[in-house]
Amino acid sequence: METTISNAMYLLMIGMATVFVILACVALTGRILILMVNSWSPEKVEEKSDATLELHTAIAKKAISTLTNGKGEVKRITKIQ
What we know:
70% of the residues lie in helices and 0% in strands. It has 81 residues and is an all-alpha fold. It is elongated, with a radius of gyration of 29 Å.
């Protein structure tokens, strides 16, 4: 009986190590693939026009005015990074 449990534990450890190695290879391959694709096709950043910024400002002012029943006021709008 002692050898049966010993063999079972040995197989368990071998199986878990194999799964760990395979999953590590998959994760590493995925990360490398992502880095390669991002280096070949960088993300395009579009600059917003003044009309779009004015529209967003007007929408924010109207929303705050509506939510505060006309008591709120927009003093400054800053972009959060």
